[in-house]
Amino acid sequence: MIGNWREFWDRPHRIYVNDRHRQVHYARVADNILSELPAQPGVVLDYGCGEALEADKIAARCRLLLLCESGPSLRDGLSARFAGNPAISVIAPEDIARLPDGGLDLVVANSVLQYLSREESAALAAALRPKLTRAGRLILADLIPPDSSIVTDVSSLLGSAWRNGFFFAALAGLAQTFVSDYRRLRQQIGLTTYSEREIRALLEQAGYAVERRSRNFGFNRQRMAVIARPVS
144, 194 in Cβ contact below 8 A? Predict the structure, then answer.
């Protein structure tokens, strides 16, 4: 039985109701990342990148794109898929400590912090700070506010499904979710939530100046994204 979120994401799951849903999700996140790339090609770290279906598109505008995943199976799949692209490198979270200081122009962690404890998130923010250039940015996206509910998530999914042509598949997928490991883990372990004040405090404690991004990454407008810059 799957006992934690890392195991869940590293195994086959039904979060995406079909291939269309998966493609739409990764295309939207890729567009969000592209909108935040520095003007000059730089080094970008996508932390918790998942399957990164649009990584080639992002890497085309980077000097180097680092795809970071904690799941061994996910890393193996990423390494095999992008083996022929010299602008993409696949790493594990523990590899971040060995990256050169001041070498990252942009770090994105989308839909990650809800699966980490507050202590883990604080440690991650602190570890990333010296790796950023002076003008570098850390973007934490898809943060879940404390007053969010599963009803909000369902509404967001169905709205996206209706606009992108997988509405009936989404209805069927929601029925499957009620008997899935995702629902069980969400009930047993839960998701870590942050108010804007809480995420600001966490990042400021780690040495960042923080601003809220006007829109979240992805489709869920009830969640938030913040942009953090290292303070000299």
Answer: yes
